[in-house]
Structures are given as C-alpha cells and as structure tokens.
Amino acid sequence: MKNILLTIFSLAVACASGTVQAQEVRGDAKAGAGKIAMCIGCHGIPGYQASFPEVHKVPMISGQGAGYIAAALHAYQKGERRHPTMRSIADSLTDQDIADVSAYYAAQPRQAGAPAAREPDAQVAQLLQKGACVSCHGDNFSKPIDGSYPKIAGQHADYLYVALKSYKVDHGAYVGRSNGVMAGIAKQFTNAELKKLARYVGSLDGELQVVPQSRFR
Q1: What is the distance between the alpha carbons of residues 50 and 158, in angstroms, rounded to a whole number?
Q2: What homologous superfamily is domain 24-203 in, according to CATH?
C-alpha cells in the first residue's frame, strides 16, 4: 500500500510539474514576428480564399485573442481539429513558437473605435438565443468569457459557416472539429440556420482584421 501511495504521489507531482511548465510558456510578440512565414501566405492577404473543404475566405486572425490562437493550433496538433494544411503547420511548431505567434497576432493594431452592436432580425435573434452564443463569446461577440474562446464579430461569414458545420462532423478523416460544447450547439441547427447565424455575426463591427504583409521578408 505504501508503494502504491508513493507512486500516486509521484504521478501527481509529475502532472503538477507539467502543468506549471505549460503555464510558464509566455508569448513574445517580437519573437513571433520572425515566426509567421507560414502564416502570412494565407492570413496576410486580404480576401484570400481557401479551397478546402470548400471555397471560403481564410479567417482573420490579427486582433484575435492569443489564448484562442494557441488553443486552435494545439487542437490541430492533437487532431481535435482536422485540416491537413493546418495540421502540418501546427506540427512544425513548438509550444514556444505557438505562444510567440499567438502573441504577435493578438498584438496587431485594432480598428479605430469600439465595435458597434447591430440588432438581429426576429428569426436570427431566436437562433442566437437557442445557441446561447453570447454566453461564451461575450458582448457583441467580441469579448469572450474565456481566453481560449474566439472573438467572432466581423469574422468572414463564409468561414464562420464552414467552421460551424465542421462541429457537426464526428468521424471525418480530414474534416471536422472535436469540441463537445460546440458540437452540441451546432447539431441543434440545420445548415441553413447556421448560415444565417454566420451572416449576422459576420456583419457586425469587430476587432478582427487582415494586416497585409509581404510574403518576402
């Protein structure tokens, strides 16, 4: 029994140590500026469109929360988000790289002025209430209650639609996202309803933007 207790204690200490080490990774925006070569070819070009899993604008990440960007990249590494290109990019990054890149994009200049709210029509208001979207993504969908949640106001509507649909895919080899909360929410809606939600949220004023950057540095 004594040996068993010592083993459990040792494992607990190891886990706690790993957690502390993970928490100690701090992002450096200046260092991140030198690590975004693989990012700017898509995220640094205004209007750039991806063609997988369907044609849509790549998401705006300048002004996005660092915690969310880091969480997304780690999810690609773990296979919780399935996208071949993003998986290969995420796999090439260390935890420090991810922290630095996330800090860099979070520090990009915001658009002038505070985001303005825009009232949804009655049907969209019902859909928003059903999904309880504001409870996680915050006021005007720009102030998430947790750093690992995204700002979504003003994000490209076609990207939001594709992202929402991906939570409804359970066992896709190359498409889908594993997130219990978002899966439960997205599966309540038809694709037509998800498209309406995406269009409304995408029409809002937000803090996200594309900061044009040269591919050649």
Answers
A1: 11
A2: Cytochrome c-like domain (1.10.760.10)
